[in-house]
Amino acid sequence: MTQQSGYLAIGQTDSDSDGLPDALEQAIAGNSNELSPNADYDGDGNSNMAEFQNMTDLTDANSFLSMLAGDLNDDQRITLADTIIALKIGAGISVQVATLDTAINGQRIGLEDAVYALQFVANLTD
After folding, report:
1. From its phi and psi, is residue 100 left (phi > 0), alpha (psi between -120 and 50) or beta?
2. What confidence tens digit (pLDDT) does each residue in 26-35 have?
3. Rounded-to-integer distance, Cα 117 and Cα 33, Å
4. Who's near 105: CB < 8 A, 6+ residues apart?
5. Which of 13, 58, 64, 97 has an alpha carbon within 20 to 30 A of 6's alpha carbon?
6. Is 11 left (phi over 0), alpha (psi -120 to 50) or beta?
7. Number of helices followed by number of strands (H, E) in the chain
8. Please, what is the Cα angle at 65 between 60 and 16, to 5 degrees?
């Protein structure tokens, strides 16, 4: 199963308000209330919600996140928090949670990472 977006789009329903769209839950579990966001359907060590948000396949244990480029705080998601970390580093403010392993270019964290995280959150990345 391939997902198009890691966030609910306008018009998508989430009848049980768990953050997973009904269509995804229906396709995997057979109804819109069975799939728990905190469970790990494919047993790869990543929660269903983390896989949905990062657009990996919830049904394939070989589809998982290892080190996600742009995930500067290592929470297995790219969010505005990662943008803030990149901006702080770019401004010379010390941040202890960032790791160079997740820098977009693999060498240094800077504005490129902030732009990437903003584009990711806005669903503007390829």
Report:
1. alpha
2. 888 888 888 9
3. 31
4. 112
5. 97
6. left
7. 4, 0
8. 65
54 half-sphere exposure, CB direction, 13 A CA radius: 23
What is d(CA 18, CA 73) in angstroms, rounded to the nearest whole number?
Answer: 23
Amino acid at 76: Q
What does CATH list as the number for 66-126?
1.10.1330.10
42 with 60: CB under 8 angstroms?
yes
Widest pairwise Cα distance in the chain: 50
Contacts of 98 (CB under 8 A, 6+ apart): 72, 73, 85, 86, 89, 109
Q: Is residue 13 over pLDDT 80?
A: yes
- Amino acid identity at 81: A
Predicted TM-score of the model (pTM)? 0.49
Closest-CA residue to 108 (of 62, 76, 69): 69
d(CA 78, CA 90): 18
